[in-house]
Specification:
Elements lengths: L10 H24 L5 E14 L5 E17 L2 E15 L4 E16 L5 E17 L2 E16 L2 E3 L2 E19 L2 E21 L1
């Protein structure tokens, strides 16, 4: 992660962000209304990792990621909808370093292979709100994120898949707030990780 502050952000950018959110919400409502009689897919996923290093200075690390997606059938094997996800990384030792973010945005998924064994998913999270803490200093970041997923999930019952996925997450932050003072910034976070997941179709 890299971070450095620049000029105080233009208030007009805040309005632009709100307009973008409104447009995507309207798009979601349109997808729901046009797919009301079509299929629905709900996806849940999550991963958790921890690591302990015992030396004269004990160090611990923990990471997790989760997602909840609600999608509607756009055409055969192609789904579109909305995703909500959370990510957290914490490293502790002499000084604690932590990062956590909640992201939301439109989500597309393509299933392929026999009995929809494989799938590719992509989410563009138009809103990513993160908290970064280094020692006693805390910053709040805002930006966007991108999440890619390749999954292998066998069908265990009709319409019910359980499996694992390989994921790539990349977030870029353009605003930060420290002690109620907002400024522009250029921070980023990336992670490649495996995850357990399940989907249910109706």
């Amino acid at each position: 992660m890299t971070h450095n502050a620049k000029d105080v952000i233009d208030p007009s950018l805040v309005s632009a962000d709100k307009d973008s959110v409104k447009k995507f919400v309207l798009l979601l409502i349109f997808l729901v209304s046009t797919s009301a009689s079509a299929g629905t897919l709900v996806e849940l996923g999550g991963t958790y990792m921890s690591d302990n290093l015992s030396t004269s200075e004990a160090k611990k690390s923990s990471k997790y990621f989760y997602n909840v997606g609600v999608l509607f059938s756009l055409k055969k094997h192609i789904w579109g909808g909305w995703n909500y996800s959370g990510i957290s990384h914490t490293d502790s030792g002499d000084e604690e370093l932590s990062f956590s973010s909640q992201d939301t945005g439109p989500y597309l998924k393509w299933q392929f292979g026999r009995n929809e064994l494989y799938s590719l998913g992509a989410a563009y999270n138009i809103l990513s709100r993160a908290s970064f803490k280094s020692g006693s200093d805390t910053e709040t970041w805002q930006g966007t994120s991108f999440w890619l997923q390749f999954a292998v999930a066998p069908e265990v019952r009709e319409g019910f898949h359980i499996g694992a996925s390989l994921n790539y997450y990349l977030a870029s932050y353009t605003k930060k707030t420290v002690d109620n003072v907002e400024s522009s910034t250029s921070n980023s976070k990336s992670w490649i990780f495996p995850m357990l997941m399940l989907t249910k179709e109706w």
